[in-house]
Amino acid sequence: MAPGTPAWLESGLSSCSLPPPQGSPRFLHAWHPPPISARMPTRRWAPGTQCITKCEHTRPKPGELAFRKGDVVTILEACENKSWYRAKHHASGQEGLLAASALREREALSADPKLSLMPWFHGKISGQEAVQQLQPPEDGLFLVRESARHPGDYVLCVSFGRDVIHYRVLHRDGHLTIDEAVCFCNLMDMVEHYSKDKGAICTKLVKPKRKQGTKSAEEELAKAGWLLNLQHLTLGAQIGEGEFGAVLQGEYLGQKVAVKNIKCDVTAQAFLDETAVMTKVQHKNLVRLLGGRGMEHVSKVGAGREAAQRPRAPPNPAGVPPQGNLVNFLRTRGRALVNTPQLLQFSLHVAEGMEYLESKKLVHRDLAARNILVSEDLVAKVSDFGLAKAERKGLDSSRLPVKWTAPEALKHGKFSSKSDVWSFGVLLWEVFSYGRAPYPKMSLKEVSEAVEKGYRMEPPEGCPGPIHALMSSCWEAEPARRPPFRKLAEKLARELRSAGASAPTGGQDVDSSTSPHSQEP
């Protein structure tokens, strides 16, 4: 028995070595030790930490803070007595003392964008699939999965001897735990802990079972010099989200960037393959890919598989578009601050970026105003194209943004530049409605059925007639009848000139050789 290990814990460990029924996954359920609050190590919260109150205290003594269960408070300072803090109540604004035992840190279980990108996280698979993944047997080989039967719950699967042992990860008092003796804020902390100390599980976590094929793609990125060192990457607030992943603000080597995370149902291999593709595209109206990373060791702080993106050059040297995404830009400013020529400029920027992708035979598949980032000098740049692919069939339609996706893509899984043109028509509707959601008051099912029967949206209020005609041309039922992005860009440039403004250059950050207008049609 390890020094300081309770007898009940050691007896629980011994049960891990019992062989499970052949051919079925084994689950180890929680023991029933003393209450968790009696054993959790004393924690020191720094000033500024937000906490949630775990109980009610409505009759405080002088100097104490009154609160109800679930209230939010901000730590101001720790008292000399380590079990007390001075804090400020969010709702009342009052300050006072309260006991540490009455607090838990706020959102300890909030979704971490890095979790789904861990090489050991396999998403939603069954226990039997986990057993198959952990073959041949190797002590300490492990993976973490989301329970197929209970979405949102996690299971740690560890190879030991000839067996695979499945440990349920429990939610307790705002934390995660396997044995209720040691608690963690997230799964990354849990994996790091059991990689160093076996504690209540059968063996230390020695080797993560990677999602199939991740290493070779990562080696290709390293060989080409596109592998990022995530120790230099700091994540900030989320500035956008598409169907395939979130875009976060961040900083890399002192430079502001946008950080793209891919959701867990996209394989690591596919993500790294797309990262490799995106290293080859450069245009003034595309957010430029800096690189990607798949972690070698699960114990590293900030582990994840991410791509950092930024615009290329001045006049926005900070890199990340500070205005956020286009839909939020329009919603927060409205008609009073954004005129028609500016809307035309944004639309032209997007069309030119998409024309370039079209010339490279790349399909975006998630074109929408939420995936357009606006730079400080009001240049629109297409982002969230980490999953842009050559024209192909077969994408899972359940993951598609229905209101933006062409009928042939929804029905038959057929994606092309012409399906991107359909999405561009919806984006135009978003732009000229100042950020409204398309197909208002219609469910996804109603939209797909209505579009199939020939329904098309009415123009937004105040939308110029030629722009509505352009939208309608993008929504032709027959893909071949939809205009190419080159024609769309030409028409938008004409409309911009007739509106009394010159066509924007989008920033002088790319030479003529990378402009789609300099290429042969």
What does this structure look like?
There is one protein chain. This protein has about 525 residues and is of the alpha+beta class. The protein has four domains: about 50-105, SH3 Domains (SH3 type barrels, Roll); about 115-210, SHC Adaptor Protein, CATH 3.30.505.10; about 225-300, Phosphorylase Kinase, domain 1 (2-Layer Sandwich), CATH 3.30.200.20; about 325-500, Transferase(Phosphotransferase), domain 1. It is about 25% helix and about 20% strand. The chain has twelve helices and 24 strands. The strands form six sheets. Strands 1, 7, 8, 9, 10, 11, 12 and 13 form an eight-stranded mixed β-sheet that branches. Strand 11 and strand 12 form a beta hairpin. Helix 4 (about 215-225) runs parallel beside helix 5 (about 270-280). The longest helix has 20 residues, at about 340-360. The radius of gyration is 27 Å and the shape is globular. Mean pLDDT is about 75; it is low at about 1-40, about 105-115, about 265-270, about 295-320, about 390-400 and about 500-520.
Quick recap:
With 521 residues, the protein is of the alpha+beta class. Helices cover 26% and strands 21% of the residues.
Strand content: 15-25%
Shape: globular
CATH architecture label of the largest domain: Orthogonal Bundle
N- and C-termini, Cα separation: 74 Å
Largest sheet: 8 strands, mixed
